[in-house]
Amino acid sequence: MMDGFGDLKDLYQQVILDHGRNPRNFHDLPEASNRADGYNPLCGDQVTVFCLIEDGHIKDVCFTGKGCAICTASASMMTQLLKKKSLEEAQTTFERFHSMVTGDEADAGSDLGKLSVFAGVRNYPMRVKCATLPWHTLQSSLTEGGVVTTE
Ligand code: ZN
Questions:
Q1: 67 CA distance to ligand 1 centroid (A)?
Q2: Can you give the pTM of this predicted structure?
Q3: How far is the CA of 19 from the centre of ligand 1 (A)?
Q4: Residue 149: inside a domain
Q5: 130 CA to middle of ligand 1, Å?
Q6: How far is the CA of 46 from the centre of ligand 1 (A)?
Q7: Which of 25, 52, 73, 114 could form a disulfide with 60 if both were Cys (CB 3.0 to 4.6 A apart)?
Q8: Rounded to the nearest whole angstrom, what is the distance from the C-alpha of residue 56 to the centroid of ligand 1?
Q9: DSSP letter assigned to residue 116
Q10: Contacts for 38 with CB less than 8 Å, ≥ 6 apart
Q11: How many structural domains does the chain have?
């Protein structure tokens, strides 16, 4: 079923290109309770993640910055997925996403829904940093804040 696999791959690329060109939740958040900046010098990706945390839940999350299609799409889909989630759910999702793109677990992405489109980046170590930068930045905003670099 090579054709089927090819179609699936194209679909994944379309999802990433769509979010890369038209990122969701791409704006700043003056009322944010948490924020952090992330920088990936290998690619030049820069993101700032803003969150509004209330009662242990991510009431709102959004981002600004300029990154490649993979980084922007990852941030866009991350914010869509994590809005209204509890901090525990966000942490679990981050760990699963990280395992998927770093290839620690072959089927780690099976329950990640749309995020599974990023499973392919595990074959491109440079791209793993693009995909994970928004997540590391979000995690930093929830813990110590400050600036994250992938180096
Ligand atoms: Zn990048």
A1: 6
A2: 0.88
A3: 14
A4: no
A5: 4
A6: 9
A7: 52
A8: 31
A9: G
A10: 45, 46, 47, 48, 49, 65, 133, 134, 136, 137, 140, 147, 148, 149, 150
A11: 1
C-alpha 45 – ligand 1 centre gap (Å): 5
Is residue 84 assigned to a domain? Answer: yes
Q: Which domain holds residue 39?
A: 4-143
The average confidence (pLDDT) of the chain is: 88
Whether 68 contacts 21, CB under 8 Å: no
The set of residues, in sequence order, having a beta carbon less than 8 Å from that of 98 and lying 6+ positions away, is 132, 135
> pLDDT tens for residues 99-149?
999 876 656 566 788 888 898 888 888 899 999 999 999 999 998 755 677
First to last CA, the chain: 40
Q: Confirm whether 64 is domain-assigned.
A: yes
Distance 68 CA to ligand 1 centre (A): 4
CATH number for the domain that contains residue 81:
3.90.1010.10
Backbone φ and ψ for 32, nearest 5 degrees, come out as -55, 140
Half-sphere exposure of 62 (CA within 13 A, CB side): 14
CA of 141 to the centre of ligand 1 (A): 20
